[in-house]
Design a protein that fits this description.
By secondary structure, the chain is of the alpha+beta class. The chain is 19% helix and 40% strand. The protein is flat and about 95 Å long.
């Protein structure tokens, strides 16, 4: 008799679990992204310029060093932080300064941000400083785009391809 009660209790628990699983499969409803908005994603990884200049050793200096330490160029490890500014229709929508990774601040700066905007025509200006300058920008790109509802527009940055890439 005791075994029958245990089996009945187990069936009740399993049935409740199945009902809960079925309910949470369809409810509550979840909307991943609103139907009446568009998204501008800014995503890139880049390294700022080095903080100091590289020093070239002379032949005399190299001759004084052991063979395994004879590097012609000595460059500082530390990099400048990246300062990014994004304007949408003339309004600043994102301003951020990202420090380089690593214990010696010698790694890349990683950046990701999503900006939710209304669909339609927009003028986007992306600016970046990676040299530690205090006036002006190292890279600046202006682009007029037309966004549709639920569209994801991506802004990337690649120094070797000239700066900002809009796609």
């Amino acid at each position: 008799m005791r075994k029958v009660r245990q089996m009945a209790a187990l069936l009740v628990v399993l049935a409740l679990f199945g009902v809960m699983l079925g309910y949470f499969t369809y409810r509550p409803s979840y909307t991943h992204f609103p139907d009446d908005k568009a998204l501008i994603k800014i995503s890139f990884i880049t390294g700022g310029q080095r903080v100091g200049k590289c020093i070239r050793r002379t032949r005399a200096q190299l001759a004084k060093l052991p063979p395994h330490k004879r590097k012609v160029l000595i460059c500082p490890r530390e990099r400048y932080p990246i300062h990014l500014e994004v304007l949408v229709d003339g309004q600043p929508r994102n301003q951020a300064t990202v420090r380089p990774a690593g214990l010696s601040s010698d790694g890349s700066s990683k950046f990701y941000r999503g900006l939710v905007v209304t669909p339609g025509r927009h003028v986007i200006v992306a600016r970046l400083i990676d040299s530690g300058r205090t006036a002006g920008y190292d890279f600046e790109t202006r682009k007029e785009i037309a966004l549709t509802p639920r569209q994801h527009f991506i802004i990337d940055f690649q120094r070797d391809r000239g700066g900002f890439i809009f796609r």
